[in-house]
User: What shape does this take?
Amino acid sequence: MPASELSAFLAGPVDQVAPRLLGSVVRHGGVAVRLTEVEAYAGPADPGSHAFRGMTKRNATMFGPPAHLYCYFTYGMHVCCNVVTGPEGDPSAVLLRAGEVVEGVEAARDRRPGSTDRDLARGPARLCRALGIALDHDGTDLVAGPILLEPGTPPADVSTGPRVGLRGAPERPWRFWETGHPSVSTYRPAKPR
Assistant: This one.
């Protein structure tokens, strides 16, 4: 898919783009994952977003052009990834929360030993590990690769609810998932401080 088409697919308010990503396929390292769960983050207008307080070295990719991957390290051990959406300078992104491995199951199993097939990409860190996505993939162009995003057909039945483990703007129903799909992660509210 040409960059202009993928940018057009990702254009618009992030809470409208996010559910469009359901059913899309992310490919890397011999594995393909069909997305079943995502969360929207709206930059400076969203206290839950990494870009809420402005640009930093960590979140700079969010401020760049759409159709790039924003990767970050969390809990001192996990990598998670987002698809940058809005126009350049508008740091909106969609967290890839969960998916179903549709190609390369053996490679995903090698990266996630001891996991059931349902859990191979169930959760944002597991999804990255199954795909072999690392922190140094931050800024990857999702058209040029090596990580590719292929728009797909969204599922017929989509649910929405609050984002997982979030203290900033937890009430926003900006988590979207394929209703009833076994790869969707369990909702957990933020723990009180």
Q: What stands out?
A: Residues 14-21 form the longest helix (8 residues). The radius of gyration is 15 Å. The helical segments are 3-9, 14-21, 105-111, 124-131.
